[in-house]
Design goal:
globular, five-stranded antiparallel sheet, 2 domains, four-stranded antiparallel sheet, 308 residues, Ribosomal Protein S5, domain 2, alpha+beta
């Protein structure tokens, strides 16, 4: 390859944890963060660690359970030639660090790969299944959605576990007053422990009922309103969703955010929600007037990902 393609991060706008319960989900590429394969004959410590981690991952890919065929001869030769994944995507922040790596490996070394411009929904479903297996190495269990987003580079609407496809969203407006933004907790989160807490909570009947009758209802309503660009029902349901998370997902909310979360609900000037599995990493926010509220977030390195 003359030029190694870039693979961008992603942001799951809606659907964290709800997807496990078969809710809808909406994810978009986040082009601020990106990664690509590079070569270095004299590697620094970071490049050397990436190369070593890739060598371990190759052994996983060589498993008999692999759902696709890889050119391991080329992969091994590249590793011996100083291959590493040069990425600006922070690990453990819910913005697709492992998803971009998995997509890059699939794109470069899978010999029977599905095109990144799939014409049929079944191809996207097949990609999701392949990527679910590939990314499970990193998280213990993966839906495969993150690498699918990173590979396709397009917004993805998840209607259910087996029904997903690309979607065209209202254009992000550079001068829009409203915004979707990220706040940095200052520490990475670990997906697997958070998912384990969630699965344990699912054993409680009250939590299951809340998820089924409220969380999924508000989550899906947010997605439908966001896709239509309809702000009133979007923010009405965002408030309910944010309040539910504050009341029922306490371990997943990073330290230092509970008061800020509550303040948004009381003022109705912004609403916070989880970005990914939580526990650390980023927290996501929505507001009708970003300029009015951004000063509240100065200690959390606010970063706008979408304007409307």
């Amino acid at each position: 390859m003359e030029k190694n393609p870039l693979f961008y991060g992603k942001v799951l706008l809606f659907g964290e944890y709800g997807i496990i319960g078969n809710s809808m989900g909406l994810s978009i590429p986040h082009t601020y963060y990106k990664g690509a394969f590079q070569f270095a004959t004299e590697q620094d410590a970071v490049q050397e660690k990436s190369n070593a981690n890739l060598r371990k991952y190759v052994e996983y890919l060589k498993s008999e359970d692999s759902p696709c065929d890889f050119d391991f001869r080329a992969f091994d030769a590249d590793l011996n030639g100083g291959l590493f994944f040069d990425s600006s995507i922070p690990q453990g922040f819910g913005v697709g660090s492992s998803g971009a790596l998995v997509a890059a490996i699939y794109d470069r070394y899978c010999t029977n790969k599905i095109s990144a411009n799939p014409e049929k929904a079944k191809d996207i479903k097949a990609l999701k299944q392949i990527f679910s297996w590939m990314e499970s190495y990193f998280h213990g269990k993966s839906s495969g959605i993150d690498p699918t987003i990173c590979y396709l580079g397009l917004p993805l609407l998840i209607k259910s576990k087996d029904n997903l496809g690309t979607i065209e969203l209202p254009a992000s407006l550079a001068e829009g007053s409203g915004a979707v933004f990220l706040l940095n907790s200052g520490a990475p989160g670990e997906t697997q422990p958070m998912v384990e807490i969630f699965m344990e909570k699912l054993k409680e009947e009250g939590f299951r009922n809340m998820l089924k009758n409220q969380f999924i209802k508000y989550n899906d309503a947010c997605i439908k309103a966001f896709v239509k660009g309809d702000r009133t029902p979007l923010f009405n349901n965002l408030k309910k969703l944010s309040a539910l998370v504050l009341d029922n997902f306490d371990p997943m909310i990073p330290q230092g955010f509970h008061d800020l979360w509550r303040e948004g609900l009381e003022s109705e000037e912004y609403y916070l929600k989880l970005c990914g599995s939580g526990g650390g990493g980023f927290v996501m926010g929505f507001t009708r007037d970003y300029d009015k509220v951004k000063s509240k977030f100065e200690g959390f390195s606010p970063e706008v990902v979408y304007r409307f």
